[in-house]
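Here's a chain:
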Amino acid sequence: MFNLFPFASTAIFNDAPQPWQLGFQDGASPTQEGITELHDSIFFYLVIICFGVLWVLSSVIVNFNNNKSQLVYKYANHGTLIELIWTITPALVLIAIAFPSFKLLYLMDEVISPSMTVKVAGHQWYWSYEYSDFINEDGESIEFDSYMVPETDLEDGQLRLLDVDNRVVVPIDTHIRFIVTGADVIHDFAVPSLGLKIDAVPGRLNQTSVLIEREGVFYGQCSEICGVYHGFMPIAVEAVTPEKYLAWIDSQA
């Protein structure tokens, strides 16, 4: 994560956006690490292409100006070789980009034998969660709503527009499936640090999965404009050890 103020003693580092941040948030899942690696690989090709194009343009400006132009007759300067080069080279670059891109895309779409499932529903303007694999003393699934903490109620260490009253608590090193839908309009469940971004569409169930590799609190927001309070329905995912997670489940029951 890029930080413009590395020596600021009051800086608090969270898995959330930083002021003037230029890069990705620190990845906490294989998905986000794959996205970051793909970005860096493609950026390498972009840098080479950028310098190549700048070199060609500079050469044209220097060698073919009005004073010393080498163009004698406009119909006598076609070259089959150069045309093959500028046609085949971009095609090879696109192929080199496409293979890792499609590989990562299909890996992100696969949801095979998850260890637990969390159902997510987007509302105007809050999120509701249901842990279908666990039931409370009344024989019902554990479920709750999650609202943004108002600015007037924020405590020390809580983040404005990002903290919620009820976090999604999940265990680390566990294959977790999220089943996402919308209760009224289209929302989008997105947590950048975990590589999660999936539409919540009314009348449709979309699914994605994640394996969180470290403890922490990971923040996200609705990423689909859904109404006047679209910017006030954040997401907070708290990843804990399996022991702490079981204790939390027991407290919910």
Notes: The chain has two domains: 30-109, 116-252. Confidence is low (pLDDT under 50) at residues 1-12.
